[in-house]
Amino acid sequence: MDIVYPGRCPVCDNVLNFGCRDYICHECADKIKFVEEPYCKKCGKPIMDENAEYCVDCQKKTFTYIYGRALFVYDRHMRRSIARFKYSGRREYARFYAKKLYERYNDWIQLIRPDAYIPIPVHRKRYNKRGYNQAEEIGDCLSELTDIPCMKNIVMRTKNTLPQKELSQIERKSNIEGAFFINQASEELCQKLECVIIIDDIYTTGSTIEECAKVLKNCGVNKIYFLCICIGSVI
Hints:
Blueprint: H1 56-60, E1 67-73, H2 76-87, H3 93-112, E2 116-119, H4 124-130, H5 134-146, E3 155-157, H6 169-176, E4 180-182, H7 187-191, E5 195-203, H8 207-218, E6 223-231
């Protein structure tokens, strides 16, 4: 399959050499910036103060989820990468993102022992236009690596919201409010889930993940964490 449909580097988008197991070209491997300590113990956002436990945002807010972790800093390289992944059909990038999530966070995943990954859903209109849900692609690949199921039809999206990146912090909260619900056919299954990890591509203010966490909590999920590919600017 790699010969017929070769993958592309998630940073430069050039075709990868056959048999490239890292899913990224050698020239770009050093360009991506992983989230390193110190980072916020709640949202995982990098912080400058080594003595601080939480970022400024998390000091002011309360969240339904317990805490979460991010993989990359959302810099210019990852902005282009995520944009191609979401809007230009580069579904194969999910293999790279999931592999790095696995390498970095598998010990943590096995420690909390989630019952399932819950990808943030997209509205059906956006899904039909794009052809896939980027969070589902990551969740499916991570599921193969960890043998934890990715449950894609439990949380549904009712509102075709505006892109969060175009809105202010206040507008983001209003935009996403009431956007999710638990599929009626999945309510009984959801009630059996003790611990889940929400999967998303980008964390900025946390409004989207928090809204998803609320509906899961209201349905009986006790422990909610999240994993995302990128997180906002260092503060």
